[in-house]
Amino acid sequence: MISTELEPLARTGGLGDVVEALSLSLAELGLDVLVVTPRYGVTRLPLHTTRWAERVPARWGWGPDDVRSLGVVELDPVRFGSGGVRRVCVLDDAELFGGRSGIYGDRLGAYDDNALRFAVMSRGALSVAERVWPGGPDVIHAHDWHASFAVIYARLVMGERWARIPSVFTVHNLEFQGVLDEVWLDRLHLPRAAYRPEVLWHEGAINLLKGATALADRVTTVSPTYAREILGAEAGFGLDLHLRAHAGKLVGIQNGIDLARWDPQTDGAIAARFDERTAKARRPIDKRALEEELGLEPGEGPLFGLVARLTWQKGLDLLLPLVPELVNRGARFALVGEGERSFEDELTWLAGTHPGRVAARIAFDPALSRRVYAGSDFFLVPSRFEPCGLTQMYAMRYGAVPIVTDVGGLHDTVEPIVGGRSTETGTGIVASRVAPDAIHAACLAAMRLHSDGRGLERAVTRAMRRAGAFGWQESAARYRELYEHVCGARLARHATRGA
Ligand code: GLC
Fold first, then answer.
1. Is the CB–ligand 1 distance for residue 14 below 6 Å?
2. How far away, in angstroms, is 386 Cα from ligand 1 center?
3. pTM check: above 0.85
4. What distance in Å separates the CA atoms of residue 199 and residue 37, rounded to the nearest whole number?
């Protein structure tokens, strides 16, 4: 598996969580899984690691000097009773990764050599895989456009043996496609013959995601609804036609969450631990602690939480203008995230103009996030599109009732509570459209539910109960089936050896 992010080493969003949990679950099922990821300046390595004696080569261009040799730091493997093992190898290169303050960019924007950086990551990852398994891996699983080079190089550049190794490519977010000027073809070892509309060419530029989705044996995305949505113009980000041509190999597999790491019964980051039965008595303690931490006035009114990367995708511009009016009606807000400057400024402005009622923390703060899940009555996810979304699942696990738009993985994970009335079904409040008035109506429905105390209690119980079924087991089994399908008997042999 090749990924730019891996929890807890380095991540900016859900990708890191997913690759960590999925790789472990697959190993638990008996597979040998190797994850390769870069070591950035921000990467937090665990105490025990082993540095490989030999460096591995990563060739990224056609020229004689277009090759780097990368250091490899290996984490302690995780072994399971099934015989499966999960290994993690971290690629060391001070210039491309270690010396950077961010993963994709810094305050000045995205790094302008990202394509080169991630080409080196991908190529280096294949070299690592070859050292681990002398015949090469059974399957290459690449995540998002950054790792698309692995699929493209293996299929087109590295010779017969690699070309025969099947690959799975997962789209976590179609908005980011890795679009490059044509001059990068030669610089990045991309064959000119593939620079055509069926593979790498898209609207006059190189499109790496298009190339990988064209060449991979299977393309997956992270929820069934998103897999359907991206075949249409609205969510297709210009690639819908191309993806429709490959619809036969596209599958949506719902992300899970790591139920052991996200458990309000054992979470050391929250003030009061609880489960379904004790939530009623204990969550108010978490709410009070969160209010205090964030400088919010204590009160009986509903507390709305939000934790997000502050980007266009997340629909903040649809939600934030509604905040003053909702505050007038008695709502309070705990807003946490970092991202685009204009959204950060608006959060800060809202907090400044509504002291005690709106709190904003401009930060990527995993521990605080957990306290928001545990202490909020409602959790807002007003996304324009959402390939899967993990925060609504974490929120449900911690008893915060989600308020979501009806898109992608949000549609697949939140069952609507109709009209905010205390019905006996539903795990969250679903806005009918991606629009401010619909999100406003959903927030009002939440406030009605809140004033009907028993109704809210029952919704909390249903949300928590539902979240208990968001584990990875089933989805990991589906990935395994997919791998077995693309590589036939070979993988099955590994798996039974493990079992
Ligand atoms: C991306 C998507 C998000 C998804 C995550 C993990 O961050 O935007 O919806 O949950 O990847 O797959």
1. yes
2. 7
3. yes
4. 26
